[in-house]
Description:
Layout: E1 26-30, H1 38-53, E2 65-69, H2 71-80, H3 86-98, H4 110-126, H5 145-154, H6 160-165, E3 171-178, E4 184-190, E5 198-199, E6 202-206, H7 211-217, E7 227-231, E8 234-240, H8 250-254, E9 259-263, H9 286-316, H10 321-324, E10 333-337, H11 343-348, H12 356-365, H13 374-381, H14 387-402, H15 405-412
Parallel strand pairs: 1-2, 1-9, 2-3, 4-6, 9-10
Antiparallel strand pairs: 3-4, 3-8, 5-6, 7-8
Amino acid sequence: MPQRPHHSPASANATPPAQRAPQPATGLLLTGGGARAAYQVGVLEAIADLRQACGAGQEPNPFPIITGTSAGAINAAALACGADNFDRAVRRIARVWRHFHANQVYGADSISVMRSGARWLTLLSLGWVLARWRRMRPRSLLDNAPLEKLLVKMVPLVRLPRLIRKGHLTALAVTASSYSSGEHVTFFEAASPVQPWVRSQRKAASDRITHEHLLASSAIPFVFPAKGIEVDGQTQYFGDGSMRQSAPIAPAIHLGAERILVIGAGRMHEPKGDASANPTPSYPTLAQIAGHALSNIFLDALAVDVERVQRINQTLSLIPEEKRLHSALRPIELLVIAPSQRLDAVAARHVGDLPPAVRAMLGALGVTSNMADVRGAALASYLLFEANYTKELMALGRADTLAMRGEVCAFFGWTDRGDPVHDQVA
């Protein structure tokens, strides 16, 4: 089942918008996960449709505070750049994900794979002594140069400052992890001055968000190359923001969000005995190990942080309200929507959709087209930027959200009139 809210809002009522009390600042958190981020787009489509069905389509952007990490940072920035027309922005993002091909994100032809992945695997097999020849020093398994071109079309960041000035957006934040300093850095643009926060091994920096920030945030370790960004007058090299991300919800809270919609890219709690469709005692392949490591990077921190917020809310509920009002403490209302199915299992059905050169390279690591090999498909689930897979994830995100129709409408304070929500056109 889709994840249920951890702090339930009051039920929606029929009070006219002009008479409603001011709504709390709403934040959106889009987590990382490579191609798994297609699920987020299906959720956003369902929210856009529910917004119309509840007669709230003329209200302002429902997410004045938007934060994202990895592929979620790209979706977040694309949504922020269309904050003056939420429905249109969602449609634009969905159009890209519904017609995705791997070659829009990374070099998927034989020559590109030979230049990056094949050399990388050669070094693994023959020894790093070969790296004394500079030409034998590949920076990543895949070359994501095509993604730079896609971002120019998909994320018109030139619009962002004007949208913030006009009040369509309060803040956008994207997170990346510095290989140079070891720190986890959240870059943000905001309408009002925000004091950058500093915590153990993580900090924030007010900056003009660029495509370089998005490339850095989405640079899956080993898979895509690091990106250089200037911080405090020095160039640091950054990789995927999901690495070492101990508090993914925190940026939205620091930027003023009092209620946050969290869209995950994996099941929050895996049931026991569901690790694989056909568990075997055989030694794990490199693909299984890599998939396990990526799941740890992309999925585990969110579940822990949600539980942390829930515990803090429970603790705050024990403090008398009059005392809370005189402090900076406040409960954070969360609504979590996460896949109701294992995305590894979905990916296992689509491994054959990968370009032949990429499929062959991943095959050397242990990824197979065997649909029962769920553990082996975990790695592919992050790289399957192919339409059949992304459309299935979008459909799942839509279905999971509509299954929570009552919770979603209550979260936003929308009046659910029971109007039907029509299916999306493929």
